[in-house]
Amino acid sequence: MTDATGRPDTGERHLSSREMRAAGVSKSYGATVALEHADIALKAGEVHALLGENGAGKSTLVRIFTGAVIPDRGEMRLHGEIYAPRSIIEARKREVATAFQELSLVPNLSVAQNFLLPALAGRGSPLISHRHVLARGAEILERHGLTRIDPAARIGDLPLAERQRIEIARAIENAGRVLILDEPTASLAETDWLFEQIGKARARGVAILYISHRLAEVREICSSATVLRNGRSIGTVGLASASDGDIFEMMVGHRVEHARRPARAVDAARTPRLAVENLAGHGLRGVSLHLGAGEILGVAALEGQGQRGLFRLLAGLETPAGGVIRVDGKLAAYRNPRAALRCGSGISYLPEERKTEGILAGLSAATNVVLPLLPRVGRAGFIGRRDEEKAAQPSADQVALNPRYLGFAIGDLSGGNQQKALMARTLATGARTLLLFDPTRGVDVGTKESIYAAIRAFAERGGSVLFYSSELPEIVQLADRCLVLYGGQVFRELQGDDIAEQTLVAAMIGHDPCAPAARAPAPFATPAHAVAENAR
């Protein structure tokens, strides 16, 4: 008898006594303690959350589970046997697989080839025909409800959300005992597809470790959670009995208050800092908007409704097919981010993907922060480390980036500290208009609060902010006004207290209670499941 993936079904995976357990696991890098005495137990057929701030040790623990890092101390057991993998391949042989937040797919290979790695690359592996590889890839895509994706498509040509789904599907294929999902919805605007796949894995008796900063989805899919802080296990709680405040306090050591920014009125008679009329191309069908000084304007949308194109056009990364952009009242025709920064009072862009579009991993955090300032930082053509760190410090302070991290290679920092450094760079440009695309994607609650504070302070100083967020509570907290995109157009505009999650969700799926249904524009080719998933 076989299970849904064709593997022998021994019945063992359905026993709750089967588990993965780690006790006293520790890891240091020189004087830096990344993980100190972490304890966790994952039971077969259950979804268990791992929570904590960026830098709490979650990523190190995941790397240890996957064999990418060897712990200094501690013990791990899988189904009662010692578990000590020394590579990701060795972990897979024990049926432990991970879908990483920073995708592990090979971008210049096809979807099907990525599914069959590393077997395809093995020296001793038999030659497999291209047709057979595509057929195997198509089978896997069908098994995971992804038939819309071409198995021959090059991974690097797919949208980020589709790459994330491929990463997750590949991990599920290899997870016979333990599945680790590291920020699986960081690039997904919906959850139904993911939760359906998790349900299938649970039914096979797979133990699932779910890592996310989105507590609402953690509560929906997980029954219990272990919290890490400063590399140590603070405790394990049942999610039904622990409040959000309890969990945040365990994560950061104190209560976290989520206060909404008071709505700010903008002088309508004053020339907008940024004005757009009938902008078209790259997913837009004629978008108009205005952004005033001191205003925070949010953008909400389902996946693929034109938001990415809007930000890339305004940042100078793409050329519009039509429409007009005005900066400080003057026509603007910039064609690259540098020109956008020099246009009027300046436009600075925080990109969606920090790993591929944002950071230079081998350089220090200070260097990454001051990249826009390099001509002004050096002395007689030379730029020293101290000069860079001194120049980076003011904007680093605005996002609460610890000064000691400025000298570290940014690739060695946690995702939250990397995001703080990128936000600091955006502020360091001196631009008066910020374009922020999902500025807190995949970061912890503490980092979110630091970035929120920086955005609010920037607006209080008269700066203008246009931001898109895949997290509706973020829009509710920050935005003075919000534009909802649907079908590449502005479907609805909300302001002040009218910005509420329920209202946003209704508009995002094309429902306007004040207008006849015929007025709703046709959406782009967003899969039907994505509409349902975003309506949660």
CATH superfamily of the largest domain: P-loop containing nucleotide triphosphate hydrolases
Detail the poorly predicted runs. 1-16, 516-520, 525-536
User: What is the top-level CATH class of the largest domain?
Assistant: Alpha Beta
What do we call the CATH topology of the largest domain? Rossmann fold
> Quick check: average pLDDT?
86
The number of domains is: 3
Sequence of strands across the biggest β-sheet: 6-7-8-3-9-10
For the sheet with most strands, the description reads:
6 strands, mixed
Oligomer: single chain
Number of helices: 19
Architecture of the largest domain in CATH? 3-Layer(aba) Sandwich
Report, as a whole number of angstroms, the end-to-end distance.
Answer: 37 Å
Helix content: 25-40%
Tell me the total number of β-strands: 20
Rg from Cα: 24 Å
Q: Globular, elongated, flat, extended or rod-shaped: what is the shape? A: globular
- The proportion of strand residues reads 15-25%
Structural class: alpha/beta
Question: What does the secondary structure layout of this molecule look like, with pairings?
Answer:
Elements: E1 19-29, E2 32-43, E3 47-51, H1 58-66, E4 73-78, E5 81-82, H2 88-93, E6 96-99, H3 111-116, H4 130-143, H5 160-174, E7 178-182, H6 192-203, E8 207-211, H7 215-221, E9 224-229, E10 232-238, H8 244-252, E11 274-281, E12 284-291, E13 296-301, H9 307-315, E14 322-327, E15 330-332, H10 337-342, E16 347-350, H11 354-358, H12 365-370, H13 374-377, H14 385-398, H15 415-428, E17 433-437, H16 445-460, E18 464-468, H17 472-478, E19 481-486, E20 489-495, H18 501-508, H19 528-534
Parallel strand pairs: 3-8, 3-9, 6-7, 7-8, 13-18, 13-19, 16-17, 17-18
Antiparallel strand pairs: 1-2, 1-4, 4-5, 9-10, 11-12, 11-14, 14-15, 19-20
